[in-house]
Amino acid sequence: MKKAYLALLLTTSAIAQAETNLGIIVVKSESLYKDTDSESTFLPNLSYESDHFFLRLPEVGYRFFPKQSPQNIAIGLSYESTGFDPDDSDNANIRQLDDRDASIMAFASYQLGPVTTKVAQDVSGEHDGYYAQISAGYPIPLGSWRVIPSIAYRYMDSKMSNHLFGVSQAESNRTGGAINAYDTEAVSSIRYGVRGVYSLSDNVNLLLGISHTQFDDKILKSPIIEDNSITSLLAGVSVSF
Fold first, then answer.
1. 71: burial class by Cβ within 10 Å (0-12, 13-18, 19+)?
2. Percent of the chain with pLDDT strictly greater than 90
3. pLDDT for 64
4. Full-model pTM
5. What's the CA gap between 80 and 5, in Å, rounded?
6. What integer pLDDT is reported at residue 1 of this predicted model?
């Protein structure tokens, strides 16, 4: 599974109170898929915020109320990089499967204090599925550090989960039946983690984070899955303008 979405979840809203931030992060994350090693990825970290418009990779959107409002409604698009490249696996049969490509999701969210609810629908035609999510995170100042513990629960419908964990009959035939065809049902996951932001100077921040995502046990029924949890580590630097 590609890990970019985990890294970006770790970094969203974790930067100083400036309109524009630019930096780079590296994330090392485990894989759910059989015979697939952990992956390290370098990613850009870019954000821009006005009172109503925001760009926080991987999201771009519009708030209906000013950003400092105690509650808000937002709509936008996000790049859902959750996916899998079979070429990353050492298993010869899995390497014959189709790519689980990233998707573009249209979302609507409601935020009340530290709690945000969100619904997102695929608009790119990759899987035509949706997810619903509720999350919470709150920054705690500790000297030069800001520590942000967070938790998120996500429900994925069967179309989205089948895109990630299912195996079509055509794919099974391609492996000569070595991998059975499999259709998944809707699944859920819970992610919890902590981020730390350390001020190196007035406009340069060090970013550190760790997160753990636990999926339903039911995904272990998939013939291409060997684990139902992922741990990710993140480090990066960001410059504020």
1. exposed
2. 80
3. 97
4. 0.89
5. 6
6. 52
Count of beta carbons in the 10 Å neighbourhood of residue 106: 16
**Is 31:73 a contact under the CB 8 Å cutoff?**
no
What are the backbone dihedrals phi and psi of residue 189, each rounded to the nearest 5 degrees, phi first?
-145, 160
Burial class (CB in 10 A: 0-12, 13-18, 19+), 187: buried
Residue 119 pLDDT > 70: yes
Other Cβ atoms closer than 10 A to 241: 9
| Closest C-alpha among 134, 109, 123 to residue 160 | 123
Closest alpha carbon to 157 in 119, 190, 125: 119
Q: How far is Cα 7 from Cα 12, in angstroms, rounded to an integer?
A: 9
Dig out the tokens for 150 from the structure: 């967070």
Is the alpha carbon torsion for 111, 144, 151, 49 positive or negative? positive
Q: Of residues 56 and 107, which shows the higher confidence score?
A: 107
Q: 25-57: buried (b, 16+ CB within 10 Å) or exposed (e) per residue?
A: bebebbbbbbebeebeeebebebbbeeeebebb
Residue 9, token pair as written in the block = 């979840």
